[in-house]
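Work Package 3 (structural annotation) set out to generate three-dimensional models for the target panel prioritized at the project kickoff. During this period the team completed the workflow that converts sequence records into discrete structure tokens, so that structures can be stored uniformly alongside our sequence database. As a representative example, we reproduce one entry of 246 residues exactly as it appears in the project archive.
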Amino acid sequence: MYAIAVKDSHLQWCEHKDLPSPGGSEILIDVAWAGMNRADVLQRDGGYPPPKGASEILGLEVSGVVTSVGPAVERFRVGDQVCALLSGGGYAEQVVVNEAQALRIPEGMTLRDAAALPEVFATAWLNLYMEADLREGERVLLHAGASGVGTAAIQLCRAFNNPCFVTVGSQDKIEACKALGAEAGWNRHDGSFVEAVQNWGGVDVVLDPVAGEYIEWNQQVLNLDGRIILIGFMGGGKPGWIWDAC
């Protein structure tokens, strides 16, 4: 098969001789579309190594058609259209994944759109509704609201009755986030968001991929029993530094 290889931080379409084959509870997917995520960019540049034993090929999510199944597979059959969350290998013509990491394509959704579902919606759901234990009616601050995870989180908040405030990089992005369901937003180029979020009524949960100076500001807008979920360091900082700041 052919797959995208990384050579000197450049992506090249190359032939791979090791063909994937499903075993146990695995399915083989003919890839129609592959999603692109920040993690792929970091991995290309050597800053996000794949898990031990995972494919060296980039790509954490795909959509496509099941072409073969392992002997223990129960949920899927050959011909099913699916999307899947991967530990790697998505930038290829075929990929193998455990059936537990795959979903049937929702009715009315194209394979193209479905390729963007698994990574961002799984991340948003895990961090908001499992890690933060977000309850109906609680208020959310979403940093990088116009990102993949941010836009997924906005839609989840809207569906589960959680008012959300976003920080983004332009007024156009604020309007785009409002169209998805955000109640209000702040342009990060205007400085601290603290006063704007306090005037909005504060928040119960912060989903933060930025860190840096946002750590201190996040604490200033939390309501009683509020929670901060930190998922990235785009604004700088290291774990030890974060604990010292809190």
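Confidence is low (pLDDT under 50) at residues 239-246.
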